[in-house]
Target: Gem-associated protein 5
Amino acid sequence: MAIVHEHSSIVQDVEVVDLTDEVAGPSTSTPAEATPSPTVMTEQNASCSASNNEASPPVIAEKVVFPPPCSWYKSSIAASRDDMWAYCAAGVIVLVYPPISYPSKPEELVIPPEAKKNPEEQQAAGDIGQIHGASPKVASDTSSNKRWPRFELVGPQLEKYNAISFCQSSWDYLPVANAPLVSGCERGVVRIWNLDNKSTMIFHDSHTGNPITGLDWSPCDHSVIYAIDDKGTMSVWDVVKNTLRTMNFGKINPTCLNASPNERDIVCFGTRGGNVLIVDVTGNSGKILAKVRHEEEVVSTAWMPKGEFDLVKYFNAGAKTKLPLLASSIHSMKMPSIRVWDKMGADIGKLQVWDKDGRVRPFKMFGSAGWARDPNSGKLLMISTGRRGEVYAWSNDIVPTLLHNAHTHNAIFAIVQCGDIVWSLAYEPVIVGYNLRTMEVECVIPTFKGICVLSPSPVDSSRLAIGGTDSVIRVLKCVSGYPNEGDGCNRAPILTHRLKGKVTAMAWHPTRDNFIGFGTDEGVLGVYELKENNRFATQFERRVNGTVYTVMFGPSVYTEGYVRPSRETAEPENAAGASYDDDAALPAESEGSPENKKEKDQMMLYACGGNTVYMISPSRPTNALINVSRIIEASNQNNKSSSLCTNKATEVRWAPDFSLLAVGYHDGRIELYTPPNLKVVCWIKCHLRAVQFLTWRPFDFKSGQESETRWLASASNDGTTRLYNLGTLYNELKANASDPVIEKEPLMLISSEATLQGHGVRVISCAWSPFNKNLLVTVAYDCTAIIWNIEDGSHVARYMNHLHRLVACCFHPTDPYKVISVSDEQSCDFSVHVWDYRAHPFRRSAPKKILGCRPVQAVKATNETIRATEEVQQVVSIQHVGAGKVVASGSTKKTTKPKSLLPLTSNSLINSKCSITEELTYLADKKPVKGGSAAQAWQDPDHPSVYLGVLGSAENCVEMLKVERRGHDAKKQFDHSVILSGWMGDSKWIEKAIKNRQVTESMIIMASPFSQKLYLEAVSVFAEQLVDSEEYVRASMYFLLVGKLDTAVKVLVDHALFREAVSLLKANQPDNKELLHEVLVKWAYRAINDGNYELATKIYFSSGEYSNALAVIEKRALPYAFHAGCYISSKLGDDKKLEMFGTKFVLDAITTGAYNECFNLIEDHPTLKWLTSIVKVHECLTGFSKYAKSIKTEKDFDMWRMILANLIDEIRGYMGEVEGKDLDLDITKICTNILVSIPQSEADAHQIITKNLSLMMIGIHDHESAIAKAVEIIKLADAWFEKKQIPLYFSVVMMTDFVVTEFKYSSVDELPENVTSAKRNAILLLKNSLNLIDDEAAINAEEEESGHPSGEEGATQTNGDSTVAVEDEPATPST
Model:
């Protein structure tokens, strides 16, 4: 037995983050279409702002969380005070702080300190449940319209919490400072919790591991805590005196416990057998005062507090009735009721639980009951439940009053009162709060236990569907202000019944606001129709073979090349029996029938799971699944991708107008298809790992609006989110829609418009804002959510309050500034957070370590000492011992003498019991010696007739061998027996060994002389034995010995010995190309699974599988892989792949200055000659920048014009070689292969500048386009290089100015202001940085020589790190 106490210090034994709400100050409001700047103000600034302005800006809403669901079938899981209440949610305790709390009485009582030592005086001062000093955590803001409580988590652990209780004392007079909560768990530990730091203050473990089933902090004596476990052991713990008593009442299976509010040491508890025991726990053994009985399991008991209860007049209460009264309720299978007893167990009355229709009839119900106080009249109310989840109140009549019917299930586990509100916890995942003062439902709070998917409705913008790990779909009505404010928080969510498996995917019908498709982790597909009193979803018969990642509604697709297997020969495509539907994949010639047209117009449910895309008609739930991946393969045989990737689809998403189907694959590839035949029109290869999520921007597809952009966002396991503008592709498809005969080669994209990098780990989901077209939110496994502004690629906000990995997100359906992010954590964190992104500006942080549940530890002490000592966690070092032999260092191998095959007679031959004369006589006469018959002699190995057989005749020797063989058989040494049998010419022992699979190498040698058949059979069996003993190389040798080469190769391949298999095959059958190819393919697959892509590439290339080698090398985003990809593409003759790899190699190489390697690559592959301008321009920029660093004098500074002119001449030389259409082709290739337009880094900015300069120099003759690109270059240079890299900034600006003027795109007078201004700034910046300009006079002199006076209005100078713009003026021509 151990008691734990702590007086001065607090030890936090589990890492729990304080999830208090973050309240931000006022912020400037911005329109929905503008990108809001997240501004957070302190309280002081907010007050100043409010005083200086008549109308203060709106206050940013605080974070709102949804709590986890309560534990089931226990009434002691909830407890309350007037300022807070709490409940158990499996392995965590949830604290609930209502936003408004009214005191039970209007007056405030002050208790003197000495009253703490006298429980009777303290009880006389006020009633139970009245709070005499408000908790510092509660703010009674009666002017606020907020109804949503604040939730906090306490003590996450592996074991479940079974019971909790609060101390009803004033916060200032708690027996343990700041610790009014006590809990009991499955491990039998009773803990008192400090609510300031969420740590354990004191605990005891006297229940020795037995689960706690009942717990109560005495309302009469606030220093005593009672607890009882499932073995009937009760503990009485005085936390002030530090004493602990235990007593056992036998195997009674208690279910609940309550302490009397009037008398100390009077306790009652109910049992599973239907008994209610009222016990006096004074002393060491306890005394049972009364034992009353129900017919069924008692689930809750409650003592009546002090106060007036009008219904007593209907009871059988008389003068002998001993108060207080006790109410008990049962888990009924027949007729639920509530019984009322007095202190001595007398039956006072019975309250029958009513039906919703006001009738009393038998039904099943888990009925809990409790007491509440009417805040209007101050009288007591009896609160109970009804048949269909109703909550009733008995006040002054035997007919109860219906409070609410917000619950839909009759299993209501706990009812508590906190302030004016009565809270009820039920089997369904909601918590209902009913306000007794206003007589209306205050709020209905959905609870979540791990969320997997969010899906906003495209039709009804306020509806949000949520699916999670508890197999329930919830549909919330997210009206304005939900859930923190407004009337939406009192609306009950729509719930389905529990489905088969976790809900991992959901999608709304595009035109129906009450139809949802879903998928689970068990491969189940189905639909749910939202209508009144409908909780049952339709689950389809056929399943996907694996977890369903995505579901989506879309039009039916088909192909002419599709051939459906016949009913007689068709087999299911997977273990779940998926096959092809009869009417879904229709040939083109049968489109005309009315049934087919109806099928074609109907929306199909698409699902991605098991690496395959399927579809099924929602109106035909019994039909087989249609394999859409097969349709894609059949329709794109000419453009078939690598066989390694086609079957590994991970994501599918239709465009909102159903003009394009986007499919993401495991290798990071995205392909776009056009309905109805799913012809591939675009091939995107930017991600390095699996595509997790795809989403189209809804703003681009709004009806009645013409948009030139079609943005697609993709999230991937490579830690990035990429953006693609597919507006050009969309417009081409729209233009060619009237002529379906036109078929073009698929567009291949190897670059994205922007790459959003900020998470560092796999990005799971992303979502566009429905209010601001430039905002995108992403969530990842680093426990954070980031909001991006895609207009410039900047970070807007970052939310870091989750403790577990995030799996889904979306913007609030009706609030433009709120975001909903969810995690799949089930106990250690709130699953759903609703937060205002203005209160969470972006900040960089290392990825957060994911917290998991672990046992709660605390501090320990003994009864003798109050001093707290820290509990030391014992760490046990486990040593794993391998199966191999261990040889001590320095030891030498000991040689042993070989064992004899004749052990029985060998010793007798040397040390016999007979004399040598007798032995010689036997050898001479061949007669038995005296002492026994010949029969007995041959049974005794020590007899001379046996051991001398080796020296006797051949017959005697054979008989001796038989005796030895029998000895080996007795010791189960079959190997020796077979050898002796072979010596004697007996093969039956070898046959027996073959039958028993006990063949040895010696048996194989002995089998050879008997017959070829016996020899081959023995070798085969021995080889199989070697396989079983994991000696695969030796086994292959023996298979080869009997001519089974295929089997030998198969053994090696099946156990990943590919090098040995290939060597064996080439050494013995070099012409067996088919088997060699099969082995190489399996070797390559194994290398891919092991992540050794380089080896797989070599294997495929050696076997002539160039396409597969190319697909594998794509997975490596390294320069050597790009270079190898170019070589393989040229061997394959794939110009598109050659362009892709060549572009990637060049863009990567120029960043490191490897220009010679780029030119060598272009020389080896002439089709990449269009990259020459990119390389030369970049070389010009960087070379010019390096030269600028070496400038030391004015003369050096004047040399830049000559160097720049020489570099430009090199590019002009290339332009002289390529003219006309070839130049136009170069421009097209640059535009289609280098798509980066939103810079996320200096490398991106450099790439954009290089691209635009190359386009200007190659041949953009349009005046406006050239000037626009020059302006874009200057803006990028200002943003990325001006302050950090002055020589590079100087190089970019001067080269841009030189190109514009030298190529005659415009006259000098027509140059835009920012180009001329940037030119002057660049010169001043460079000179100033090199200390070539010492003072203002030198600057003015320099400007006067250049013809740019600095004294005009707006002129500025540059000093040190300060950069000032000069008023624009026509630039002087270059000399």
